[in-house]
């Protein structure tokens, strides 16, 4: 009679678990590679500052900038400025989505309307948002409305143009198959146009978010009492270079975080894009 063994058997690794481990390893390697150069620059910068090779007023050492950020973070000012800027970005970006997405779909589906509106839209596309800042302040005042308008204008064209491109470049064969199977107009939009245009739309949204974040800081530099741009302006008025550079650092870090969060959102809604990166076709 064979003795029964109570030792539990090891479960074989699933494909999903192997992919998760591979993605985690790849993320750590990418993170290490991405941080290597900034860390080297900061270390060299700190050493040169300690040796007196750099002007401490024009270019304070990273440790001094870090101490300044810790000071304004401890009293709550940093979080207050970041929250104000993020609030403006969310409102302006949402308004841009509500305008750019429907217009992009409309012009993508209706070539005649596209030909009628394209010259006017191309004209406004060439004008950067920063050129409108004085006019928006004159028309809408120095309050939040003008900042929302600047952000919306900055994000509009990347979202609109990529949406238009995604709809207009939908594969003709896919549309022919949809017609053969008798799909309605709404079914054609939801089952053919939307899946085909989704990657291009997300690219436009990502670019629009980046553009509106940069234009917001420019608007806050010109007229604001709160926000990261105002923080930099305050450092300039008080001749505090460490505060100005700290504000610039915060702008980059918050923008990087927004971009990373949006890429994760894109992976969630478009999982096939991530799979295509993991298993590239030959």
From TrEMBL:
The chain crosses the membrane at residues 27-45, 65-82, 89-111, 123-141, 148-168, 188-209, 244-262. The lineage of its organism: Bacteria, Bacillati, Bacillota, Clostridia, Eubacteriales. Keywords: Cell membrane, Membrane, Transmembrane, Transmembrane helix, Transport. It holds the Pfam family BPD_transp_1. GO terms for biological process: alkanesulfonate transmembrane transport; cellular response to sulfur starvation. GO terms for cellular component: plasma membrane. InterPro entries: MetI-like (IPR000515), MetI-like_sf (IPR035906). It is a multi-pass membrane protein. Its main location: membrane. It is found in: Cell membrane. This is ABC-type nitrate/sulfonate/bicarbonate transport system, permease component. Belongs to the binding-protein-dependent transport system permease family.
């Amino acid at each position: 009679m064979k003795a029964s063994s109570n030792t539990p058997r090891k479960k074989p690794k699933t494909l999903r678990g192997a992919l998760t481990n591979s993605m985690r390893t790849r993320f750590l390697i990418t993170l290490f590679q991405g941080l290597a150069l900034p860390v080297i620059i900061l270390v060299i910068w700190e050493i040169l500052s300690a040796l007196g090779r750099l002007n401490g007023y024009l270019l304070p050492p990273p440790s001094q900038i870090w101490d300044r950020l810790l000071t304004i973070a401890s009293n709550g000012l940093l979080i207050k400025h970041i929250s104000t800027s993020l609030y403006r970005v969310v409102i302006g970006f949402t308004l841009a989505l509500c305008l750019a997405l429907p217009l992009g779909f409309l012009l993508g589906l209706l070539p005649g309307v596209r030909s009628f509106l394209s010259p006017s839209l191309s004209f406004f596309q060439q004008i950067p948002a920063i050129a409108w800042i004085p006019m928006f302040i004159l028309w809408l005042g120095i309050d939040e409305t003008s900042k929302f308008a600047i952000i919306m204008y900055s994000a509009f064209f990347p979202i609109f143009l990529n949406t238009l491109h995604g709809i207009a470049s939908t594969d003709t064969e896919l549309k022919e198959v949809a017609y053969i199977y008798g799909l309605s107009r709404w079914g054609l939009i939801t089952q053919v146009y939307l899946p085909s245009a989704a990657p291009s739309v997300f690219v436009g949204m990502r670019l629009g978010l980046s553009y509106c974040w940069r234009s917001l800081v420019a608007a806050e530099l010109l007229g604001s009492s709160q926000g990261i741009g105002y923080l930099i302006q305050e450092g300039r008025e008080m001749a505090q270079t460490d505060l100005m550079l700290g504000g610039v650092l915060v702008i980059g870090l918050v923008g990087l975080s927004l971009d990373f969060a949006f890429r994760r959102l894109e992976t969630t809604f478009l999982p096939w894009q991530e799979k295509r990166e993991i298993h590239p076709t030959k």
